[in-house]
Amino acid sequence: MDFPKFLLGDNTDYPSAIFVIHTEYPRFIINLEDDEVEWLEDFTKEDEQDLEAEAETLIEQATAFYDREISRYVD
Predict the structure, then answer these.
(1) Fewest CB within a 10 Å sphere: which of 10, 13, 61, 69?
(2) Rg of the chain over CA atoms, in angstroms?
(3) Hey, what's the torsion of the CAs at 48, 51, 53, 59, to 10 degrees?
(4) pLDDT of amino acid 46
(5) Residue 9: DSSP 8-state
């Protein structure tokens, strides 16, 4: 099964949270309410160095995805 690169997540236990799930490596969930990121991968020290460079771009993409989806919903 193919998944989109980003998914929106919702949970009634976290009514003000805005979850965006990144489904490709490195997989993560970001809560846009507080920018908390939960990585769904185990990283080596070498991976962490590469990840630092990529993380900012991925988080910007997740935020842009959310903004795009919400603009489509509102229009």
Answers:
(1) 13
(2) 13
(3) -140
(4) 84
(5) E
Distances in whole angstroms, Cα of residue 62 to Cα of each of 20, 45, 70: 6, 24, 12
Q: Is 11 helix (H, G, I), strand (E, B) or coil?
A: coil
Which residue's structure tokens are 């929106």? 8
- Its pTM stands at 0.88
Which tokens belong to 2? Answer: 């193919």
Residue-averaged pLDDT of the chain: 92
Q: Please tell me what DSSP assigns to residue 25.
A: S
Cβ 59 vs Cβ 30: under 8 Å = yes
Phi, psi torsion values for 36, nearest 5 degrees:
-75, 135
Q: How far apart are CA 40 and CA 27, in angstroms?
A: 5
**Spatial distance between the Cα atoms of 5 and 24, rounded to a whole number of angstroms:** 6
- Bridge partners (DSSP) listed for residue 38: 29
Integer Cα distance of 33 and 20 in angstroms: 10
